[in-house]
Model the fold of this input.
Amino acid sequence: MKKKNNLKEPFVRIVKRDNIKVKNIILIYSIAVIGGLLLSGFISMLFSDKGLFDFFQSLFEGAFGSDRKFWLLLQDTTLLLGASMALLPAFKMKFWNLGGNGQILVGCLSAIACMFYLGGKVDDGIIILIMFFASVFAGALWAFIPAFFKAKFNTNESLFTLMMNYIAQGLVSLFITIWVKSGSGVLAPIQYGNIPDIGNKYLLPIIMFSLITIVMHIYLRSSKHGYEISVVGESINTAKYVGIKVDKVIIRTMILSGAIAGLVGFVLAGSINHTINTSSANNMGFTGIMATWLANFNPLIIIITSFFITFISKGMTQVRKTFMFTNDSISNIVVGVVYFAVIICSFFINYRLVFRKKEKEEIKK
Amino acid sequence: MDKTVILQLKNITKKFGAKIIANNNVSLDVYKGEILSILGENGCGKTTLMNMVAGIYYPDSGKILINGEEVIIRSPRDAFEHKIGMIHQHFKLIDIFSAAQNVALGVEGEKFNLKEVNNRIKEMANKYGFNINLDKKIYEMSVSEKQTVEILKVLYRGADILILDEPTAVLTPQEIRSLFKILRAMRDDGKSIIIITHKLNEVMEISDRVTVLRKGDNIATVNTAETSEKELTEMMVGEKIDLNINRTEPVDRKLRLSVSGLTIKNSDAYKVLDNVSFDVYGGEILGIAGIAGSGQKELLEAIAGLNNYESGELIYYHPKKDKPVSFFHKTYRRVMELNGENAFKDKKGNDIDLRGMTKKDVKEIVNNEMVIFKEDEVIDLKDKSPREIRELGIRLSFVPEDRLGMGLVGNMDIIDNIMLRSYRKGKSVFLDRKRPADLADRIINELKVNTPDSHTAVRKLSGGNVQKVLVGREIAASPAILMTAYPVRGLDINSSYTIYNLLNEQKQRGVAVVFVGEDLDVLMALSDRIMVLSDGKVTGIVDARTTTKDEIGLLMVKSDKNEVKE
Done:
């Protein structure tokens, strides 16, 4: 009996939440965003003599400061939205497509190649039409290759798609070397095959990818294909059991995924940059992953997450200028802090913490 | 029986999360030299309670006393110090070690001397009547031998209190009998034995006293001699319940499926099914018995088109006699294929030959339902995928063993799960969720599925309700053959009887029901015929009304290699 009960209840226990109200989810995310931004502000203050007010002022100025900035914010948001829509069907199928960058890049490359070789020889309208199909086809092909090997030989799709990124980059370097005779490695903007502006020069991607988002939402939710994607993603055994041809669904979905990525490349090349370099995809293949995951694979919420991510990156560029950071490491850290806050808050949506009751209460009993 | 209390549980409570109360204020005494059964349905907290005694879990509140002294049991090692040993449902043995090595493993404070270990084990084995080859490696052993090693392991550590978690679940009737003999010998030697079980007949046979748990509460502890199966069931379920399975005589028996010479090899080129032949008839229930892993799963999956097979034939007899050619056979190609065997007559009964007619004429005749099948259509299922089977209009329903991993999608709601079978219908690229939603509501109502609504994800439902959704969906397809693998595993008694009744109902409607089961009592009460599989071979097909448990038990272990021993 001398042996005292020395096994105490743990100090804090993690308990799973059963149901959480939408109101609370929004509240938790808001706290995370605001908390993350405040923390970022404080970190920035450490390295500069500017204050918290300046931080928030520059943040919003960077994103909304002028008409041009605002349009750019919208344009980049929708581009990221497009990249996310490319990744979404694959992710719904639990096919971890890390090759968004490569798929966008080959889309760009195909479009630029059309502009380069056909420019001046054929009508611009025809060039644009050919560019469109070439980009979509190239993106689809870049996604089809890993999908085929996944379906037939069960290769690891993450590694495969990732490696395809480097091949795409290599191809871009190769073509730039061929095209740029001067050896500067910079391809001057090509004047042919530029997609004409509709309204203003930012509207095309905005309209195009907003539409794609809506279509994707309907496709995943209400079409038979979308349903098959979900079943394959949840359980391959169930899919086989009900007679879904798993190989076919994987390949079909990845072709769709790549085609949309190719389309993003088409817009980047034809409407925005008119040139190409190895980082033309602007890393959207990876930022898109974050937008998609943060939104829990819901296309409508991806609109919000894409906007948020673009807003932070635009805003931080301005903060960098105001705070006179000479390189971008500090602003990268700060952006990381905000993302981190948002990502860990999802923990509190699934779980809550229960602390041990006060020692005294136990003794009283 | 002397009345010394050896183990006492006082007001034990254990919660998992906020809502799940596994044990609520349970108190219990165990005497020296008795066999105590802990009886209760799945999920009532039997195993949790004993895991706290064995040091796997730690109670939220309450005390454990051994010989009147309060003890703290934080790990299985503590439990052994207090001479408590537990034999878990899933054995914890090292496959490549011999029996003796496994027994001696992890015993501290003595030099490892295999010879001495052997002697000591033999001594114990003789004392209680174990029959075991100590040099045999675990991977060569049958389930019952492995269990023996587990018991020896616990005894070797000097346990006086032995806890066995569902020890009979995987044994044949003969093996159960010899296990019980050993348990009695140990009891007579003064050891206390606790058996966790949900099988009533075993409780009655082996135990001195029974403790009944229901939803975490200790309902009662009674002397076995003073109670009955009926009383115990009522305590377990909490209400009066009719435990009879109403088996009707098969009516209108018709051959539906004929399996012959089916052989399947697994990836190691081992024959998991070896030359299996049998027939399945509409209007009867064919039970399939056998030790777990004797090829039951592969057999059903092969019939469902999920498994490629080495050799053999699967012939399905499509119920068609005297029915007009329609619905599934509307494509011209298919109709002409069928016509090749002169399978049609007209409404007056005259033979009809469509060959030589134009496509348009044939389509018109078929659409007007003027062509009628003479016989059931014979379809070869060889190398047909599940989709092809479905597209041929074969109504083959299958309730697989792995409900959430194969039959259903856990993260989808009930409606989306209901339409897994039917979503492809129609030409639209969009889903029709209206009809599945109606069907879901009907299944929820008729089978009394306990769910907030039809939009609830299936994984949030309890085991019984998950199974009701699955079985409900498969039956809603109005099958000609209904295959079920362990359909009541993990279900409470009420849900189990709902399932039995559903199967019987299907049988009366002329459906050919295949029931793979593990509980021989149920198999014998429900089936019309029982086929026994042993190591991938059919060792017998018996009449369920006249057979005995012993007969089935012998067939379950019969094989070419080892002689059957009684």
About this structure: Chain A touches chain B through 27 residues (CB under 8 Å).
